């Protein structure tokens, strides 16, 4: 069995800590095994490793998420890159074509798809592993995992089953699907033994490849990537699962949560204060998550979330937090914080002048032993002021050491890269007619290769 983890997300539901470059699955707010904070994707990958499934797993992610995945999951984690964000049908079709034409996966192999961020325990992955057997026993085109509901939720889809099938692994034939019902309808579905649709399903690779052929879509990865923008933005549920003739569901009765809003996420954050700040004693069920370097005080407010980050400040009642995505939908600004494979940066200031000049100021951290790419910019010059740590820079024709207090000027068109010998921080001031990330021409990420270009 091969596993495809879908890494999507627009970065709005957990704003201001999440953004287009750091969706909810990358927020390091969950408790780890050794007292450190970890993200949802780090937690899930660790669980896959413990259940011996990681070696068979691939992550399907948008091109904008590659850097943060490389940062949080160091090593050779296989990533299938989406050229742009579409929906789950295009993403899964592209991943299936990659497995077929690039990874040379056998057409009879079982492919299991799941979100990259479910909050579950290890028994979940044991049930997931049974989907291969269920496909064989049932003769179904698609096998789903259904979670037994614990309350009549209005935000999940429901799977209504027919009779159970006896055997080593119990499964039901699917009678129908119901999308995000009212609470009253959800109660009726629960009485009919319905399951929550948790977004986990399996199929044989040849099933989807044949479906793509029937739709006139390419089954070679390079060609699918070229045509990706032409694929309809539609979910895999609507395009494939609800059109399939033979679909079964495997029950899962263990714990499962979708930590997609602040009210559900804070249920799994043990400390009410994360970051610099204080909460008064008369506050009940209140959480402060502060990523800024300034203190935040919360006084006399109960059942609220206060979240502060480089992209903004949020104060909300927990019960109102599911409305956040719609409420901030009109906000359009560049992400002010990003994790890269070498560390992170935070935007401190952005100025746009009437003459077309722009000035962007960043605080940048390079982790010890890591380096930036070797690159240049066409439309801006940069000034670096090293504030802490030691490292070395490669600028055009030479490598030189850098330490706290050093200042470097890098004109437009100048090749440059930097490596940290120990954790290294510096302030970068960009000045020019374009200070976007798009104005970057990269030659290599390998420090050893940089001297080949001088």
TrEMBL record:
Q: Which GO terms describe its molecular function?
A: mannose-1-phosphate guanylyltransferase (GTP) activity
One BP term from GO: GDP-mannose biosynthetic process
Q: Which residues form the Nucleotidyl transferase domain?
A: 3-268
Instruction: Name the CDD domains for this protein.
Output: cupin_PMI_typeII_C (cd02213)
Write out the entry's keywords from A to Z: Nucleotidyltransferase, Transferase
First and last residue of the signal peptide: none
Q: Which InterPro entries match?
A: Man6P_isomerase-2_C, Mannose-6P_isomerase_type2, NTP_transferase_dom, Nucleotide-diphossugar_trans, RmlC-like_jellyroll, RmlC_Cupin_sf
Q: Per the database record, which ranges form the Mannose-6-phosphate isomerase type II C-terminal domain?
A: 340-443
Pfam families reported in the protein's UniProt record: MannoseP_isomer, NTP_transferase
**Coiled coil located at which positions?**
none
What is the protein name given in its UniProt record? Mannose-1-phosphate guanylyltransferase
Species, as recorded: Paenibacillus glucanolyticus
């Amino acid at each position: 069995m091969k596993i495809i983890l879908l890494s999507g997300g627009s970065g709005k539901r957990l704003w201001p800590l999440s953004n287009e470059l750091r969706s909810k699955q990358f927020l390091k707010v969950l408790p780890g095994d050794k007292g450190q904070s970890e993200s949802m994707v780090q937690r899930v990958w660790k669980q896959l490793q413990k259940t011996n499934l990681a070696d068979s797993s691939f992550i399907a992610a948008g091109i904008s998420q590659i850097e943060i995945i490389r940062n949080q999951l160091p090593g050779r984690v296989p990533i299938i890159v989406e050229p742009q964000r579409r929906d789950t049908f295009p993403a899964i079709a592209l991943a299936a074509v990659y497995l077929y034409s690039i990874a040379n996966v056998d057409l009879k192999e079982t492919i299991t798809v799941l979100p990259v961020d479910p909050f579950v325990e290890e028994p979940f992955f044991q049930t997931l592993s049974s989907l291969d057997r269920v496909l064989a026993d049932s003769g179904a085109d698609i096998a789903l995992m259904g979670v037994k509901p614990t309350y009549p939720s209005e935000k999940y889809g429901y799977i209504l089953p027919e009779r159970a099938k006896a055997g080593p692994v119990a499964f039901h034939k699917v009678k129908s699907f119901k999308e995000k019902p009212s609470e009253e309808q959800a109660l009726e579905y629960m009485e009919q033994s319905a399951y929550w649709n948790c977004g986990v399903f399996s199929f044989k690779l040849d099933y989807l490849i044949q479906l793509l052929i029937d739709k006139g879509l390419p089954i070679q990865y390079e060609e699918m990537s070229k045509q990706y923008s032409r694929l309809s933005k539609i979910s895999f549920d609507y395009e494939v699962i609800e059109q399939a003739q033979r679909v079964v569901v495997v029950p899962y009765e263990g714990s499962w949560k979708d930590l997609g809003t602040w009210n559900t996420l804070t249920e799994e954050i043990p400390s009410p204060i994360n970051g610099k700040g204080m909460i008064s004693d008369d506050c009940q069920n209140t959480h402060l998550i502060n990523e800024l370097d300034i203190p935040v005080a919360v006084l006399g407010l109960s059942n609220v979330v206060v979240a502060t980050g480089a992209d903004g400040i949020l104060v909300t009642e927990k019960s109102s937090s599911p409305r956040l995505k719609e409420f901030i939908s009109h906000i359009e600004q560049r992400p002010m914080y990003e994790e890269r494979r070498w560390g992170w940066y935070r935007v401190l200031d952005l100025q746009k002048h009437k003459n077309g000049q722009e000035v962007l100021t960043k605080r940048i951290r390079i982790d010890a032993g890591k380096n930036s790419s070797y690159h240049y910019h066409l439309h801006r010059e940069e000034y670096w002021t090293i504030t802490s740590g030691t490292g070395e820079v490669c600028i055009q024709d030479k490598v030189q050491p850098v330490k706290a207090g050093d200042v470097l000027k890098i004109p437009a068109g100048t090749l440059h890269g930097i490596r940290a010998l120990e954790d290294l921080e510096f302030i970068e001031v960009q000045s020019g007619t374009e200070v976007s990330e798009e104005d970057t021409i990269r030659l290599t990420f390998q420090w050893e290769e940089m001297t080949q270009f001088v």
